[in-house]
Specification:
This protein has 267 residues and is an alpha+beta fold. It folds into 2 domains: 20-58; 74-262, Homing endonucleases (Endonuclease I-creI, Roll). The protein is 42% helix and 18% strand. Strand 5 and strand 6 form a beta hairpin. Helix 5 (81-94) packs across helix 6 (121-135). The longest helix is centred in the middle third of the chain and has 15 residues, at 121-135.
């Protein structure tokens, strides 16, 4: 049936719902002159969608588009995800996020803080290294009695730490987003290392007996304890809850040996 004269054409606008990572993958295929059918097969994306993006790239659109948020950068740059897994463990264990004003321009920014015992020089340097990798900004050190406060100022930090909220962590529900779980599944050891380096300990159950090494993770939040247990299960480590209900302890010597292989004594 023909459209009567004078009746405007109804145009249905379909929004672009592809993730930044998917767009980046299509762009990479376009740069490498991979035909549309092959790109569609490789990426499991409809050929019509690939064709549309190819046309946009050819017209000069999206070529200079850069991620504008911390989350987009993190999801696109896989080299940051290992460092993020460690920082996430540190934050859940004993990290803090607060809103403050920039000393440079007075604008509101977020302040990401991690505290470490002043005697653990290597842990302090490791934290600085991981924070630089994720945030790509200057890291500040504040000397406090017996400890070091490691600080980063950045806009929109809650984008990649959505567990931030009012009050103490153990007084509210802590739920990891699916993309956070994906990163932890890729780097469970880094996540566990961050938890142990913040709110965990390694000790000898028998003085001067190196064969009596134990690991324990304490936290007031049952949610965070649950994520510690879950991450341990990803590397075949069994845990049990302390009678107080606020700590998880490794069950066997085999479990301790696994932790020793990638954590070891704090220094």
């Amino acid at each position: 049936m023909r459209r009567p004269k004078g009746v405007p054409v109804q145009v249905r606008v379909i929004p672009y719902m592809r993730t930044p990572e998917e767009i980046n993958n299509i762009r990479e295929c376009w740069y490498n002159q991979i035909n549309q059918s092959e790109a569609s097969r490789r990426l499991n994306i409809a050929r019509c969608t690939v064709r549309d993006y190819y046309n946009r790239f050819s017209n000069g659109e999206l070529l200079e588009t850069k991620p504008v948020s911390l989350l987009e950068i993190l999801l696109l740059d896989k080299s940051k995800q290992e460092a993020y897994a460690y920082l996430l463990g540190l934050y859940l264990g004993d990290g803090h996020i607060t809103k403050t004003k920039s000393l440079k321009n007075g604008n509101e920014v977020y302040k990401f803080r991690i505290f470490q015992d002043a005697k653990y020089i290597n842990l302090i340097q490791l934290c600085i290294h991981k924070m630089k990798a994720v945030f790509e900004t200057e890291i500040n050190i504040c000397n406090m009695p017996g400890c070091k406060e490691i600080i980063c100022y950045k806009n929109n930090i809650p984008e990649i730490f959505p567990q931030h909220g009012p009050g103490k962590k153990h007084e509210r529900e802590i739920v990891l987003r699916n993309w956070q779980k994906d990163i932890v599944c890729k780097y469970p050891k880094e996540f566990l290392k961050g938890l142990i380096h913040s709110d965990g300990c390694r000790y000898l159950s028998a003085p001067n007996n190196l064969n009596s090494v134990k690991y324990e993770f304490k936290n007031m939040s049952s949610d965070i304890l649950g994520y510690f247990d879950w991450a341990c299960s990803l590397i075949d480590v069994d845990t049990r809850r302390h009678s107080c209900g606020r700590a998880s302890i490794l069950r066997t010597k085999k479990d301790v040996e696994i932790f020793e292989s990638f954590i070891g004594p704090k220094s």
